[in-house]
Sequence to fold (171 residues):
Amino acid sequence: SFVETYPGMIKKYVQGYEAFVASGFDHKVADVFVKGVDRQPTAHLNKAVALMVSSVEAQSGELKSEGQAAQVFAIIVFIIVIIIMFVVMTLYIRRYLVAPLKEASTVSLALADGDFTQSIHSTMENEIGQVVSSISKIQSELGGLIIEIVSSFDQLLQVVDKLFDELGTVS
Fold:
């Protein structure tokens, strides 16, 4: 291992340095002591680097896999949230738009057929509430008008009956 070969390499470098100084700074003398001494520690370091690269690549693959899983999870959660929002919006629309309009349509058709017995009420203060209130007002006013017409017709019938009675006594 590098730890075992490193001290020997340092010892050779120290010996090479001392020989270099003793020889009057002749680099050829120092080269004899250090030639090839770094090959084995370098091989160990290269091996360690290769192991680290391999480990990093493995961890990178795991992280990439985990990232893809997280991305799939996020997409699934997003789709579920969209579905829930769609269901909530559908329920809201049915309850606050479709149902009141359906009721208004039913009462309007009954009014058109002359049935004034059905009632309609709304607590909504939007356009739909205004439509429902208008239908209720039409129903009330038409009902009152019909009652007046029937009452006037009854009075007219009484007058006509009285006239016929008087005509019958005159003849």
In short: The CA atoms of residues 147 and 153 lie 10 Å apart. The helical segments are 2-22, 27-34, 39-112, 127-170.
